[in-house]
Amino acid sequence: MNLITTLILAAGTLLATNSSLAPATVNKTESTVTWKAEKVTGKHWGYVPISDAQLDVASGKITGGSFEMDMTNLTVEDLTDPKSKGNLTNHLKSDDFFSVEKFNKSTFKIKEAKTANGTDYTISGDLTIKGTTQPVSFPAKVSVSGKELTATGEITFDRTKFDIKYRSSNFFEDLADKAIYDEVKLEVKLVATI
Q1: Model pTM?
Q2: Distance CA 120, CA 85 (A)
Q3: pLDDT of 20
Q4: Fewer CB near the last or first residue (10 Å), C or N of the chain?
Q5: What is the Cα–Cα distance from 181 to 168, expressed in whole angstroms?
Q6: Which of 125, 126, 127, 132 is nearest to 162 (CA)?
Q7: What does the alpha-carbon distance between residue 47 and residue 45 come to, in Å, rounded to a whole number?
Q8: b or e along 90-111 (b: 16 or more beta carbons within 10 Å of the residue's beta carbon)?
Q9: Per-residue b/e over 146-162, b at no fewer than 16 CB within 10 Å?
Q10: What is the pLDDT of residue 178?
């Protein structure tokens, strides 16, 4: 009898533990990734659609997750002239930058999510671009309203570590005002139902 009772209690504990761990459903329409890059003479920005995403949540706190970006639908938003906008968009998709024909997806996978208060996080994980994976870490904010969880953060990465060296002053000399800075930012917003 004691053995049966012990087994029942153990099973109940296991079920209770598992019930607190659940993948959140990410709303890909409301979630966004905004890219930002700068050069000596100015800057550009645009969007990269999220094609897949999930967040692992336990007791209202993020414990893991990942998201995938559709590089084929990368956009440029700061230019209004159709020709200039199209030229830059196509150039970003070329082998000078993201080689979209070969690498149509970029991903980020959370390896660790640290928080002391459930709101302010330090997220660490693997960013994969052009088939190359590099570790990144960044601060993030998480808010919960009812059953909706919103996570925001800014990933900053060195593009040259992903074999994107076009007009980088660290690899080419005498670029002067044609140089493009190596630092690229991704502003991420994930909206999920928990």
Answers
A1: 0.86
A2: 37
A3: 54
A4: N
A5: 6
A6: 132
A7: 7
A8: eebbeeebbbbeeeeebbbebe
A9: eeebbbebebebebeeb
A10: 78
Is the domain spanning 21-193 CATH 1.10.3210.10? The answer is no
Residue 32: CB atoms within 10 Å: 16
Consecutive sets of 10 residues in the chain, 194 residues long: mean pLDDT of each? 44 43 87 97 96 93 97 98 97 97 98 96 98 98 95 98 90 76 97 94
Cβ neighbours of residue 61 closer than 8 Å, sequence gap 6 or more: 113, 115, 118, 142
| Dist CA 74 CA 88 (whole Å) | 11
Distance, CA of 60 to CA of 194 (rounded, Å)? 8
Tokens of 32: 């966004």
Q: Are the C-beta atoms of residues 67 and 52 closer than 8 Å to each other? A: yes
Mark 55-68 as b/e (b = at least 16 C-beta within 10 Å): bbbeeebbebbbbb
